[in-house]
Fold this protein.
Amino acid sequence: MGSAKKSSTAARTARIEEMRRAERARDRRNRILTIVTSAVVVAGLVVGGVVLVQSQSDDSDSAGDSKTTGKFVTGADGVRTWQGKLTQNHVSKSVSYPMVPPVGGDHNQVWMNCNGDVYAKEIPNENAVHSLEHGAVWVTYTSKADQAAVDALAEKVKKTPYTLMSPVEQQKNPIMLSAWGHQRTVTGADDPNVDKFLATYVQGKQTPEPGAACTGGLAQ
């Protein structure tokens, strides 16, 4: 009798211990599953965030050059005015402009210094266009321009705030003046149209951001 009771107690104890081991194993499996699931969710959120940021960045960089549309219309005064849309997005990539030199469109977020700055080498279009947005006039020339005229123009630019000057070999004419949305050809520093253009377009009515800085930007 006593032996049977002891045997029953031992069996019950063994079953209880087995149930406890099974419960502990189940708890371990549940904890592992929870950890793995959480890791997968976090990884998915991180990847999704990266994709979203990259997508937004790509949208920003692709926002520009193809959206500038229109054409030049030449006025009686010889000034060519861009009739159409000139976009103003800040982009980090290079921009393909529909005119040379460009008179507007998407541009780099950093402007070229344009406080009477004269550059001996070609400058990035994307930075120069930002200067035009600030109301600057950009004087450009090719190797076909008379050197005396180039030197005289450089002296004029140095004395005129909100102007800059640089070579642009790809342009059609030897000497050109550009402002935001406007452009003309001149013959040299003594051409009266130079002073007229500067008087009209340096911080003129066409300026998208009047009063914006022409210093503290990019210098060659």
Remarks:
- Residues 121 and 167 are 6 Å apart (CA to CA).
- The helical segments are 2-61, 125-133, 147-158, 192-201.
- Strands lie at 69-74, 80-85, 115-118, 137-141, 163-167, 175-179, 182-185.
